[in-house]
Amino acid sequence: MNIVVNKAADTFHLYNDDISYIMTVLPNGQLGQVYFGKKIREREDYSHLVETATRPMSSCVFDTDKRFSMEHLRQEYAVFGTSDYRTPATEVVQKNGSRISEFCFRDYRIESGKPILEGLPATYTENAGEASTLITGLEDPVTGLRLELLYTIFAKGGSIARSARFSNHGRETLHLTSAMSLCMDLPDCCYDWMQFSGAWARERYPKTRQLEQGILSVGSMRGNSSHNHNPFVILKRPDTDEFQGEAIGFSLIYSGNFLAQAEVDTYDTTRVLMGIHPSCFDWKLEAGESFQTPEAVMVYTDQGLNHLSQTFHRLYQKRLARGYWRDRERPILINNWEATCFDFTEEKLLEIARTAKETGVELFVLDDGWFGERSNEHAGLGDWFANTKRLPQGITGLSKKIGEIGMKFGLWFEPEMVNKDSDLYRQHPDWIIAAPERRQSHGRFQYVLDFSRTEVVDYIYSMMETLLSDADISYIKWDMNRSITECFSNTLPADRQGEVYHRYILGVYELYERLIGRFPQILFESCASGGGRFDPGMLYYAPQGWTSDDTDAMERLKIQYGTSYCYPVSSMGSHVSVTPNQQVNRDTPLSTRANVAYFGTFGYELDLNVLSSEELEDVREEITFMKQYRHLLQFGTFYRLESPFSHNTAAWMVVDSDKKEAIVGWYRVLNGINLPFTRLKLKGLDPGTKYAVSGSVKSCYGDELMYAGLITTDISSGQAQGDEKMSRDFESRLYILKAEKRGIE
Ligand code: DGJ
Predict the structure, then answer these.
(1) Residue 741 has what pLDDT?
(2) In this model, does residue 434 exceed pLDDT 80?
């Protein structure tokens, strides 16, 4: 890994064994993008890669040159008003109303490692030599606004982390109305755009479209990253698939309003922008003040989508997630939400916990309904003290009883919200996000606390801190069940109202940071009505997130498959729930529910007491299995093999780092009869190693399993005879592969 600066040619080359990222100072002082892709050789000068032409109807920068137009140049951080008509990376409104800016290169510095982004989640380094950061300093001579562009290249893999920092060195107050985290101009548009979109209970479905002249974008204006779109997109070559071909992934480490956009211009170049959504964004920057954008990560690969995802998985698992739980196997939990909803007594909870303990579950999680006057959706949020009518000795008493059963105890909170029927609201009605004299829209009868205000965050922190110091709590599920409406803060002046959305999310990060600092061993799981805030920003604080409220195994196949394009298995909360499933009313076998949930953090979302003794025995076996293999399942290299979006069957697998063990998950939606034979080409194995495959009499070499394929054919490729057991809908199988020996028989 290196950063080479060629002063004579004004170029910067960031490279490692996999990628090169090259930029240069353009004749007008702006920074030009030269190349991002597979590693190319170091040269003194790359100016031959910068193309200019005299194009009709161009607006030109210099009066002596008809060729130099920003409209036709690829740039690092495009601005408004200086002959580029595409969407800029930033807009700065000045005192006289002008929005024109021009940032000229001034200086640079290189830092080993990676600077911390104050108050924001970001990737980090732990050891010397893991990464280097180039910080280029540019300045707009008219306003005195300094722009620093931060580029971190990691020693391994195809990742570059980027962000921008603005510092007002001038005398006048400025307003940033757009400040993207990255602007990436690519030389052509021969890409398919993949976004990960959906809705509550069907989050992060991959959707693919071809780029064309014009703009394609996804984003959120909800205050949270949302169920609807994820701050992650991929540009892939049309012939790229899971196993080969070029692709670039763009991921924003942020949990609030975002925009991800690709703009193809008249000459088929593509500009990607990613950052805080500029709509409603207006950050006042007084003289001497600075603004740091969130971080965005770009990953390049020429080895297909699985390779792209694996690069994100490694980076986000090891250098975005932090703390005590980062590398630890996650506890197998039981959560009472689908078992009881709001309808529970302490005895009922203990009953659930006792049976769960008996099957091997490690952590009991008490969900919504334990606090204030909360017995339905209308009351209690904001009153973070136990309802002693339900829990006579409070949370401290219950946590002790759970401890005596031999389990860890976890608790649900929704710290950002308040019901009007709560002590908190009665004391502080002005603490919610709401505009004066306007209707206050509710979501689930709850209102959003104004986390842009320090006193609000302080208050919630002290309530939670009191409770957590008192009781023995080792896990928190942090929920967030509505988006922001009527976005207005009572304490900010008119010209700072455009800051509320971002200040809100900074408040959320601040509360997380303080709680983690005070209770470093608590495992946080983020949640937002399931997967409404499943984003990299959250991963920095909570190493796992509740992937979706949809716990049906067939639905989860799609949700977890789509989520895996960016996020590691260890980040996906996944539980076995009852049948018929509460979301889709479907009956799937218990084994299939477990076979899907194993590829995640694993747990149960039901009252095990409702199961038959045979089923309970199965649960015991499932838990024993998960305990044996969870390190491999949660931290192994994950491959998508067959997509549930295009097949009646789906498959994925994990392989350990020395290729000695692997687990394949195979799933079939609908059963059939007299079907074709089926086989699955496995990945990531050692071709010369012989593997014992569970369920097969004969062991197979890695090359056989990868190139000839694992035979998955069953009775449905024919017709059951006599008392042969028929196959059924929603079946699944796990194949455990264990290396026997290397070499030829
Ligand atoms: C939404 C979450 O996604 C559920 O798991 C549950 O915690 C409910 N909220 C509780 O209100």
Answers:
(1) 72
(2) yes
pLDDT in tens, 567-615: 999 999 999 999 999 999 999 999 999 999 999 999 999 999 999 999 9
- What SS3 state is found at 385? coil
Helix orientation angle between 590-597 and 553-563, rounded to the nearest 10 degrees:
10
Strands 732-742 and 689-693: antiparallel
Taking the mean position of all CA atoms in its chain, how far away is CA 171? 39
Instruction: Kindly give the number of the ligand 1 atom that is closest to the alpha carbon of 367.
Output: 7
Question: Residue 446: pLDDT above 70?
Answer: yes
Distance 108 CA to ligand 1 centre (A): 48
Instruction: Find the 602 Cα to ligand 1 centroid distance in Å.
Output: 17
Q: Is residue 17 among the annotated active site residues?
A: no
Query: What residues are in contact with ligand 1 under a 6 Å CB criterion?
Result: 337, 367-368, 412, 479, 481, 527, 529-530, 546, 549
Quick check: 744 pLDDT over 70?
Answer: no
Query: CA dist 49 to 24, 375, 623, Å?
Result: 10, 66, 57
Alpha-carbon span 70 to 52, nearest angstrom: 10
Q: How much is the average pLDDT of 439-468?
A: 98
Q: Which one of 421, 549, 552, 656 is the catalytic residue? A: 549
pLDDT greater than 90 at residue 392: yes
Give the pLDDT score at 200.
Answer: 98
- Smallest CA-to-CA distance from 187 within 13, 38, 44, 33 is with 33
Q: Find how far residue 728's CA is from the centre of its chain.
A: 35
Query: How far is 647 from 557, CA to CA, in rounded Å?
Result: 12
Active site residue 618: no
User: Which one is catalytic: 18, 84, 367, 479?
Assistant: 479
With a cut of 70, say whether residue 742 has pLDDT above it: no
Examine the pLDDT at 1 and tell me if it is beyond 60.
no
CA atoms of 503 and 568, how far apart (whole Å): 28
Mutate to test the pocket of ligand 1, among 200, 338, 367 (most ligand atoms within 8 A of CB): 367
CA nearest ligand 1 atom 11, residue = 368
The continuous run of DSSP H or E covering 460 comes out as helix 454-470
Structural contact between residues 370 and 387, judged by C-beta atoms closer than 8 angstroms = yes
